[in-house]
Amino acid sequence: MANLDDRSGPDIRDDHIATTTQFYTKFAFDDTISATFYGRKSTQRTRILKYIAEWGTLGAGYLLSKWFPAVEKRLETEPCPLNEATHVFIENSFGQSELVIVKDYLVDGQTFAYFLKECSRLLDDACVEDASQSAYTNTSCYPQYPNIKTFDYRCNRFILNPFTGQFISIHDLPRVMSSDVDECEEGIKDDQHIMSQRLLFGENRVVVPVKTITQLLIDEVLHPFNVFQLFSILIWSMENYFMYAMIILLMTGGSVALTLHETMANQKKLEEMAHFSCRLRVLREGKWAEIESAELVPGDVIDLEECTVLPCDLILLNGDCVVDESMLTGETVPLTKAAISYEDFREFYHSQRSEPSYSLYSGTKVLRSRPRHGRPATALVLNTGFLTAKGVLIQSILFPRPNKFRFYRDSMVFIGVLAGIACVGFVGSVFVMRRLKYPWPYIITRALDLITVVVPPALPATMSIGAIFALTRLKGRDIFCISPPRINVCAKVGLMCFDKTGTLTEEGLDVLGVVPCTIAADSTPKPLSNQAPLMRLTPSIGQQCRPLVQLMATCHSIQRINETLVGDPLDLKMFSFSGWILEEVPEDANEAIVPVVIKPPGSESFDLDDAIN
Question: 15, 478, 499, 609: which one is catalytic?
Answer without folding.
Answer: 499
